[in-house]
Design goal:
The chain is mainly α. Helices cover 73% and strands 0% of the residues. The protein has 2 domains: 41 residues; 83 residues. The longest helix is centred in the last third of the chain and has 42 residues. The protein is elongated and about 115 Å long.
Length: 156
């Protein structure tokens, strides 16, 4: 009997689609490849954690200390006075806006019928909200200016 050499059957690689999707990968990538990928990711994460624990990276002397602001007592007092003046002026403007709103509401209630009053009330409320928002933005801008003055004083 003559023996014929065994033919080794090699499976043909799968035909590649135009776009590789997760579903295609799940069906065509062998389990060993998925296990190897998972092992590589776990290993990389472990190496990252180990490197993060190195004393070189945890040296407290290499950390940047927060800036210490040292201002003269006159500058601190000036800033306090400016903040107080800004706050008082803001409160006065807000009180004036509220009073104007209440005056307008009372006048509208005295002069109009209920249906018309509701429409005028809504319009007054919108105007009041816009005026208060403008005041708040102006106040915030003034506070930002004082803070930049403070930051500028810290750089000296």
């Amino acid at each position: 009997m003559t023996s014929q050499p065994h033919k080794r059957i090699i499976p043909e690689p799968p035909e590649m689609p135009e776009k590789v999707s997760l579903a295609w990968l799940y069906r065509h990538v062998p389990v060993q490849a998925w296990v190897a990928l998972g092992g590589a990711l776990v290993t990389a994460a472990g190496i990252g954690v180990a490197i993060g624990r190195l004393p070189l990276l945890n040296d407290s002397s290499s950390k940047v200390a927060p800036a210490v602001i040292q201002l003269s007592s006159e500058t601190v007092q000036e800033i306090k006075l400016q903040m107080q003046a800004l706050t008082e002026a803001h409160n006065k403007r807000m009180d004036a806006l509220n009073q104007a709103y209440l005056t307008e509401e009372t006048k509208a209630a005295d002069e109009k019928l209920i249906g018309t009053y509701q429409r005028d009330h809504a319009a007054a409320a919108i105007r009041m909200k816009a005026a208060m928002q403008e005041e708040r933005q102006a106040f915030d801008a003034q506070i930002a200016a004082v803070r930049s003055l403070l930051a500028g004083g810290a750089k000296r």
